[in-house]
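User: I'm putting together notes for a lab meeting next week and I want to include a structural view of one of the chains we've been expressing. I don't have a solved structure, so I'd like a prediction I can at least talk through. The sequence is below, exactly as it appears in our construct file.
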Amino acid sequence: MTEAIRYRVRGMDCASCAARIERAVLSAGVADAMVSTASQILSLPVPANDPRIAAVEKAVNEAGHHLDRLDVVAGDDRIPSPASHTTPAYRRALWIVILLNLGYGLIEMIGGFIVGSQALKADALDFIGDGLITFLGVLAIGWSLLWRARSALVQGLFLAALGLGVTANTLWRVFSQQPIEAGLMGALAFVALAINISAALVLVPHRAGDSNVKAVWLFSRNDAIGNAAVVGAAGLVAWTGSAWPDLLVAFAIAGLFLHSAWIIIRDARGDIATAR
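Assistant: Thanks for the context. Below is the predicted structure for the 276-residue chain, given as structure tokens.
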């Protein structure tokens, strides 16, 4: 049986990232690769001297991600030597991003309750999810696959609970619609956009190469789409006087969030089974 070649993937924080990496690997001629959003590991079922490995690394890099080769020692996946993303400067940058995401996620969640906006609450989940994923990435540097997977499973279950809570609350609001302060809702969404841009600017100097800079902006762009949707919903609420635009955006964002949480849980369970 061929021993899998494993990599830690930098810049993978969602299901769409994993799908993009899978397409890149397939384009390099390797099928049946396993990409785990939970542990952020790419496993290639190829021998160590396979010439396609270089093609895979190039394709993934061009897709906006960076790979760090992992050694396998006594069943334990570890980075063989200090990688650039473990430098003190990069760790500080990651902690800034964690504080920005978690801090504003809590602020936006509270703001959602104050203004009566479900879309703000759903957007806050995205901040909290990004912050927790980055937090796990910082803590798990050097951890074994089993412990990374266990941590990711707990994280995925927590995120799923948050998503279900917002979805249930949104359903309740469908039958008991309440007035929304559209002006404050839009202002909070604009601040959310500024926070996303700030997080990207903090990380850009620490990305290795143009493709990784591209990855940072791809993530920021995806997050900004959610912020823009909330801003648009605020405008429609102010224009129509109806809560429906807010509710529809909330359902869309919460649905995407729950899908990501399910991917994390699925991958974490698969990683636990593999590690054992």
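A couple of points you could mention at the meeting. The longest strand covers residues 5-10. The chain is about 70% helix and 10% strand.

User: Perfect, that's what I needed.
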